[in-house]
Model the fold of this input.
Amino acid sequence: MKTILTLMTAALLASCAGTGATASNVKPYTSNMCALTDNKLGSMGTPVTKVYGDQEVKFCCKPCIAKFEKNLDANLAKLP
Done:
């Protein structure tokens, strides 16, 4: 469990690089559903976390990221 948390923390910090965001000022993604497909997080393997500006976003799989980013502003506006 400690290894998983360490890896998740490292991934979150890496996704913040270059955005001006830090782990302490990132608004957490609180849903347990993929931001794009509404699939339950974990249903397609390990969820993927990205940070856009100061907003954390979680996806059920890597292909959802590219689809989400094609219409980034509209998709970010739909987040709870």
